[in-house]
Structure formats: C-alpha cells, structure tokens
Amino acid sequence: MKQRHWPLYGLRIRTPRLELRLPDLELLDELASVAADGVHAPDTMPFTVPWTDGSPADSGRAVFQHVLATVANWSPEKWALSLAVLHEGRVVGRQDVMAKDFAVTGEVSTGSWLGLRYQGRGIGTEMRAAALHLAFAGLGARTAVSSAMTDNPRSLGVSRRLGYLPDGLEAAALRGAPVTLQRLRLERARWEEHRTVDVTLEGLDACRAEFGG
C-alpha cells in the first residue's frame, strides 16, 4: 500500500534474518503482545523508565501508546523511529533510532528490547546492526550513541561487538534509587571497521526529508 501522507510506513530494513519496519496497527498489536509476554527476568530492571513494572496488560498498552506517540510527535528536528523487528515473519521485539537536530549534529541514539523467548540467538546484535546501517549508510550520520546499566552485560556486549567505545558514566534515578549507566559512542569510522551484517534499505528515499538530514 502506498503511503502518501506518512511514507515512513514504507521503510524496510532487512538483514539475513530480520526485517525492521514501522508497525501498522496489526503489527503494533503483535508487538504489544510480545511486551506483555515479558522482555526481562522479573528480578531485573534494565530500563531507566520502568515501563514493565505493571501488569502484562499494562506493559502491552504502554508499548502500543508509545509507538503511536512517536508518530504523532514526529518532526524533522526531533524524531524517534520505533521499529518492529520481525524474525521469520513474527514480531520479536522493538528497535528505536532517535535524534534531535540531526541536520546539525549528525548524531543518533538507539534503544531496544527483545521478547524473552527470542533472546540468546544473536537477534539483538543483528537488529542494532540494522539500525546503525540506516543511520550511517542511509542517513549519513557521523556518530551513534547508546547507554546501558553497568550491570546489563548483554546490552553492553552487543555494543562492544558493534564497535562502540565507552564514553563515561552517568547517574540516573530508578524507582527512587541511584543507578549507574555506561555511556557508549560509535564513530562512523569504527562502524565501518566493525560491519559484519549485510543490510539492505527499501523505501528510504520517499521519507528521507522526514529525518531532517
């Protein structure tokens, strides 16, 4: 279906195993169900915004509303592309790419989560690689940044494999208590050196102006 008024729905990012795209309402409902089924162990909290603290239904609703809000609040000066990640035709998680004043800074940030049942298969690394390809190869980004709690070895391991370097520590508040985040930074040259995943882009030209690059 041709998207005249919101061409971002036509954007596709593909890797050997995955497809990433902005979810329509049907896919968004599937994505919310994945969140409701759980994205981390009950005794951990990998997010500085504890959106999974409620019931499974609350978590699913939070995801559904969040993704719709990213579309409603989009502007070329400040945007958040919240992509459903599909593996073998099934939604398995979400990969976000975000930027503020991208035309000036050339910098994006990323965030993601993966359903518990799909973890431990290398999907997290592959979907972040897809996001970085969109940023660097597709949009001409100069840097990508991310962060993870210092006690989140899986997320830190993904960043390390993709070439990110430590960029200092940051204090944050979680449920009224302090936590420490490891900031991470990936320059374009290091991204090129650490590329190992084949990625293709489809539909970017039709929505390139939306990114403000």
Automatic annotation (TrEMBL):
> Keywords of this protein's UniProt record, alphabetized?
Transferase
| Highest taxon listed in the record's lineage | Bacteria
Q: Name one Pfam family in it.
A: Acetyltransf_3
- Tell me which residues make up the N-acetyltransferase domain: 17-164
GO terms under cellular component: cytoplasm
Supply one GO molecular-function term: protein N-terminal-serine acetyltransferase activity
PANTHER family associated with the record: RIBOSOMAL-PROTEIN-SERINE ACETYLTRANSFERASE (PTHR43441)
What is this protein's name? GNAT family N-acetyltransferase
What phylogenetic lineage does the species belong to? Answer: Bacteria, Bacillati, Actinomycetota, Actinomycetes, Kitasatosporales
